[in-house]
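REQUEST ID: PR-0412
SUBMITTED BY: lab tech R.K.
PRIORITY: routine
TASK: structure prediction, single protein chain
INPUT:
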Amino acid sequence: MAFLAPRRPAPPLLSTEDGVRAAYAAHGAEIYRLALRGLGDAGVAQDVVQETFLRAWRARDRYDAGRASLRTWLFEIARNVVVDTQRSRAARPWLRGLADHETLAAAAPGVGSGWDAAMRRILLEEALRRIGDDHRQALEQTYLADRSYPEVAAELGIPESTLRSRVFYGLKALRVVMEEMEVTP
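STATUS: complete
OUTPUT:
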């Protein structure tokens, strides 16, 4: 018989009704915006948010804070709900006629690259939180802010060679963290 690792207790935010409300207050608006961009229908996006939190509450005992933040976990659930919703709508094309046409015109079509880019950004933010402050700062200033090494080194008051080392080792640490998070390029 295989040894099963003990499950961690549900995060406080999902253990009680008040906790779910707090998680909704913290992340509901972002999930709604992503669902709206992906589906193009305000009503359906609201349903996606509701379904996301319902699934999260039902699966609260499977959440592992060691693998991802609550925000990242909720966005993964939301992505699955959006995909399920798109499949359901594709199987029932007559439902599209019930959508609010103003919302459809304002929203981006399909989940495609906009959704993928948002998910990559969220996962990158989570991975950056898990590396050392010096390495994170070096990567954020050089790669993400697209600033030159001499400029960043002068601002930080360190030699350029030190900054280059921090970037090098920061990228290595980031790669390890992303592998631990099971994120593929």
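NOTES: Confidence is low (pLDDT under 50) at residues 98-105.
REVIEWED BY: pending
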